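Following up on my earlier thread - several people asked me to post the actual chain instead of describing it. Fair enough. Here it is, all 186 residues.
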Amino acid sequence: MIVMQDVRIGTAFVMDGNGYVALKSEFSKSGRNAAVMKLKIKNLLTNQISEGVYKAADKVEEINLDLRPMQYSYNDGTDYVFMDMESFEQVEIPVDQLGDTIFFLEDNMEIEIAFYEGQAVTVKLPINIVREITETEPGIKGDTSGKSMKRAKIASGYELMVPLFCEIGTKIKIDTRDGSYVERVK
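Reply from S.P.:
Thanks for posting it. Predicted structure:
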């Protein structure tokens, strides 16, 4: 059993007798209110996607999925195609099933795909990836506090907040679990 607070992107769990995988996970605690998790989840059998707010202390049973090493090949417009590294079989996963993970995929990237009852359900990315900033505004000269942030965009179109010293062409490390900036890479 795990508590809802520990549910991250790609975590599979049983709730109300159905199997789900988290596509988006956000912790929220405000004022006197109880801590909650805002989740975007997908039913593992019906592929129905829903969003909800759950108490962070609620317990759910985690599902162990069959993980296989795969390589991202290409996107054909409606599906993302992955190749099994051992058998060279191709697996297609619809765009809507992948959630925000599509922003972090790169050609020939080696990842793990989780299977539930023989069906591909989600992609497990490395925790940290390195990407180059393709678009951002110039930083304010002299502001070196490190706490000021600005918007930046990477090649996939994903936007995130980065420190002011990051410029176009700067390589940064991104946490794929929540899409946040980790550090600048030299």
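The chain has a mean pLDDT of 86. That should answer part of your original question.
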